[in-house]
Design brief:
Length: about 375
């Protein structure tokens, strides 16, 4: 198996230094989304004391020309802290900080989709939208070959790998369990994990999270996953179709509920939401991967437990539909629905914002409605 050279360094030597006291100071790692809309970047600074809240964290900057976010002649970008987590890699009192990225003129960077998502979520806060996202990913060696797969040929057909047990069925459980514990330590709302249908493919679930918290927690869970894989010397890819052919792709199924759908008789609100979504399929496909649907076109083929990218469908317990109503929800007459269209490499801010726009703000058409964001933001702030 091809693993990175850095993973072979003596970690016991590192641990000796990690035990050294910091003298009351704290290391804070600033994390942001780069110009691809998929990649994450980070850098660390020293603070004189442990930050207790976002207000304790100063803004920072970085060279945007090296991350695909600015020209070299005007390269400084602002890092604005928005959510703080404990650091599972260097431990307390150190922190991980998720940041928004602003340009030199204080306008949001093109891949900073959190900014508009936050305003939209504030507009519908009375409906208390909850989300749970199921992040699928695939483990690869540094040579790009799936972890644990034969060097020449393929593993046996799919079937025994989903939620599998045994060395011939499961590859990389150490990574999965390490990631799980690291997320819990950090304060990420991770709620489960399982082996997926394709060998070396896994899934973890984050949620329920309300509003903007969904995107914040999923992005931090992704960062922690990549850092854990770095220590083990392998790669976690979010490619929605990492292996061509008769193998399952990777999605990020999104579970959605509101105050209305969770109450008795909420099924009628679920059915109304699905009807709205059915009339705006093209818009959602464009928002559900970073390339306006191009990535999902490789995955949403109508096979391998997916719907067709060209058609909208819905059904109870139907894993091949665009929208699935869980059987228990159908029996209870209330609860949530699952949108199975988002790709594994989707931006959760874009996905949750699109769903809220259609389901709660009743938008129609192939383009999002343009609101006066500054006015809406001021209104939301006045309510807080």
């Amino acid at each position: 198996m091809s693993v990175s050279l850095s993973s072979k360094l003596n970690k016991a030597v590192r641990d000796q230094y990690m035990k050294l006291p910091l003298g009351g100071k704290a290391l804070v790692t600033y994390i942001w989304i780069d110009g691809t809309g998929e990649g994450l970047r980070c850098k660390t600074r020293t603070l004189s004391q442990e930050p207790k809240s976002i207000e304790d964290l100063p803004e920072w900057n970085f060279d945007g020309s090296s991350t695909g976010q600015s020209e070299g002649s005007n390269s400084d970008m602002f890092l604005v802290p928005v959510r703080i987590f404990r650091d599972p890699f260097t431990l307390d009192p150190n922190k991980l900080v998720l940041c928004e990225v602003l340009k030199y003129n204080r306008k949001r960077a093109e891949t900073n989709l959190r900014s508009s998502c936050k305003i939209i979520m504030d507009m519908v806060k009375d409906s208390q939208p909850w989300f749970g996202m199921e992040q699928e990913y695939t483990l690869l060696g540094v040579d790009g070959h799936p972890y644990g797969w034969p060097k020449n040929g393929f593993p046996g057909p799919q079937g025994p790998y989903y939620c599998g047990v045994g060395a011939d069925k499961v590859y990389g459980r150490d990574i999965v369990e390490t990631h799980y514990r690291a997320c819990i330590y950090a304060g990420v709302e991770i709620c489960g994990t399982n082996a997926e249908v394709m060998p070396s493919q896994w899934e973890f679930q984050v949620g329920p999270c309300e509003g903007i918290e969904m995107g914040d927690h999923l992005w931090m869970a992704r960062y922690i996953l990549h850092r854990v894989c770095e220590d083990f010397g392998v790669i976690a890819t979010l490619d929605p179709k990492p292996i061509t052919g008769n193998w399952n792709g990777a999605g990020c199924h999104t579970n959605v509920s509101t105050k209305e759908t969770r109450q008795k008789g909420g099924i009628k609100f679920i059915e109304a939401a699905i009807d709205k979504l059915s009339k705006r399929h093209k818009y959602h496909i464009c928002m559900y991967d970073p390339r306006g649907g191009q990535d999902n076109s490789r995955r949403l083929t109508g096979q391998h437990e997916t719907s067709s990218i060209f058609e909208f469908s819905a059904g109870i317990a139907n894993r091949g539909a665009s929208i699935r109503i869980p059987r228990q929800v159908g029996q209870d007459g209330c609860g949530y629905f699952e949108d199975r269209r988002p790709s594994a490499n989707c931006d959760p801010y874009a996905v949750t914002e699109a769903i809220v726009r259609t389901v709660l703000l009743n938008e129609t058409g192939d383009e999002p409605k343009v609101y006066n964001y500054e006015e809406q933001s001021q209104k939301a702030a006045s309510k807080d």
